[in-house]
Design a protein that fits this description.
By secondary structure, the chain is mainly alpha-helical. The chain has one domain: Cobalamin adenosyltransferase-like (Hypothetical Protein Ta1238, Chain: A), CATH 1.20.1200.10. It has five helices and four strands, in the order ββαααβααβ. Strands 1-2 form a two-stranded antiparallel sheet. α4 packs antiparallel against α5. It comes from Candidatus Nitrosopumilus koreensis AR1.
């Protein structure tokens, strides 16, 4: 099978269910941003990370394929590859676990610190954009609302893990100074 099909040369792309839509459709922007977040997370994972963190991030990479698949499937009656409440609860459990190692925030912090933490903060911003684009899609088409919640929690988790990576590497949070 060749990597190029030429079926998208006219500016359209295929969705699940053999539907074709414009590559400028909000659905494409939403799951494209999810794909970008996943690729950015791959860059983070290229760094040496503690096992508890890397195992969570690898699981999230797989889950992001579910999010993208969910967003690419306009048939909400099709129950395969859908974001579930269990996936969201798993993110919340990771947030609670990792946050318990951190001091409470008293200031806003800037993205930064060690390279892997900085890269994860960047990935967090890509996830925020994916969330925004998914909200825009939901304003146009009906979607699984769990996708929005999942992306919201995921950016929170990345914020917490970014702080944790810095802490475990002996780096303080980079405080915002006014």
């Amino acid at each position: 099978m060749k990597i190029y099909t030429k079926t998208g040369d006219d500016g359209n792309t295929g969705l699940q269910g053999n539907l074709r839509i414009s590559k400028s459709h909000p659905r494409i922007f939403a799951y494209g941003a999810v794909d970008e977040a996943n690729a950015s997370l791959g860059v983070v994972l290229a760094n040496p990370l503690d096992n508890d963190i890397s195992s969570v991030l690898i699981k999230i990479q797989n889950d992001l394929f579910v999010v993208g698949s969910d967003l690419s499937n306009p048939n909400l009656n099709d129950v395969k590859n859908r974001v579930t409440l269990g996936m969201i609860q798993e993110l919340e459990q990771h947030i609670d676990k990792f946050e318990s190692e951190l001091e409470p925030l008293t200031n806003f912090i800037l993205p930064g610190g060690v390279l892997s933490a900085s890269q994860l903060h960047f990935t967090r911003t890509v996830v925020r954009r994916a969330e925004t684009l998914t909200v825009q899609l939901a304003e146009k088409d009906e979607i699984n609302s769990n996708c929005i919640i999942y992306l919201n929690r995921l950016s929170d988790l990345f914020f917490v893990i970014g702080r944790l990576i810095n802490k475990r590497n002996g780096r303080d949070d980079v405080l915002w100074k006014t």
